[in-house]
């Protein structure tokens, strides 16, 4: 049999045959693909209303639901999975009135559901107390040396809280658009 057109002699396979195989690896819909290094970076977006912002100190907002671990058999690592935040972006969209902040210690904080360890945070001062729309970014520098018990992170979702002096936010009527980047880490 003669070689197929454009056959790769090293592999012994033609691009036409390989194309059927590679179609399953098409882009995921993320702007730059889903893979960064060896760990995929996943993102979630959430818009906080004025009412949610004012209640955030006492009512956490679920950003990422706990991972599904039942019914997957041996696909789940022995200890499960942990979500690890890599970045947080907050865009404050000014309404008619800026928020009044109780103290400079108030901060938006991402934590595991039901836990109190700050995985990633950013101060509210300089963001929601402005009279113009403002954007803020933070990365993982604060969690670079974080050590946390597997029992305090395995199979838990991620939630947003407002930590600091109460009452944290009063007055104000703007919204905050959040974008949280995170990775999924298998635990053994």
Mean pLDDT: 80
**Helix fraction bin:** under 10%
Spell the H/E element sequence: HEEEHEEEEEEEEE
Low-confidence stretches: 1-11, 20-36
Class by helix and strand content? Answer: mainly beta
As for the CATH topology, it is: Jelly Rolls
CA-CA gap between termini? 51 Å
Biggest sheet descriptor: 4 strands, antiparallel
Number of domains: 1
| Strand line-up of the largest beta sheet | 3-12-5-9
DSSP E strands, number: 12
CATH A-level architecture: Sandwich
- Our Rg estimate from Cα atoms comes to 22 Å
Would you give an account of this structure?
The protein has 188 residues and is mostly beta strands. It has a single domain (32-187), classed as Sandwich (Jelly Rolls), CATH 2.60.120. 7% of the residues lie in helices and 37% in strands. The protein is built from two helices and twelve strands. It has helices at 15-22, 50-55; strands at residues 35-36, 39-40, 42-48, 61-64, 80-93, 99-101, 107-112, 120-123, 134-138, 158-163, 169-171, 175-187. The strands form four sheets. A four-stranded antiparallel sheet has the order 3-12-5-9. A four-stranded antiparallel sheet has the order 4-10-7-8, with no helix packed on it. The longest helix has 8 residues, at 15-22. It is elongated. The N and C termini lie far apart (51 Å).
